[in-house]
Fold this sequence. Notes:
- There is one protein chain.
- The chain contains 5 helices and 7 strands, in the order E-H-H-H-E-E-E-H-E-H-E-E.
- It has helices spanning about 15-20, 25-30, 35-50, 95-105, 120-125, and strands spanning about 5-10, 55-60, 65-75, 75-85, 110-115, 130-135, 140-145.
- Strand 6 (about 130-135) and strand 7 (about 140-145) form a beta hairpin.
- The chain is globular.
- About 25% of the residues are buried.
- The mean pLDDT is about 95.
Amino acid sequence: xxxxxxxxVTETDLPxxxxxxxxxxxVAMSTYPAKDRGEFMxxxxxxxxxxxxxxxxxxxxxxxTGHIICWKEGKYEQxxxxxxxxxxxxxxxxxxxVAEFLxxxxxxxLFAEVANHNLASRRVLEKNGFSIHDxxxxxxxxxxxx
Length: 146
């Protein structure tokens, strides 16, 4: 497992996170469209002000490698999501970040959406105890109960 650090997201992280969400291959893997700079910054401004959202920057070898976040969606669902910059893929960073984040987030069940064609992200969730809750056409919902 790679040695990572999870720390609160700061405004100085946002330009790096913005560039990461522009990567065409990452966008294709996530099925979420990239945001333009203004929309991205407004979105994160809301996240950083929301006390019901837990957002962490993932640091690996002193570099911002991505983020991981937990938020409430709908009446009962707590969701997590993460984004790793493409240059840091295939190093176990996402799996390690999710494992460490789950130690912080005690609420269960937790849910996570993943594009069905994103086998790496599906594997990250499965390694961390998530199982398929609802398999859809393009996107499946995973659930962690314990």
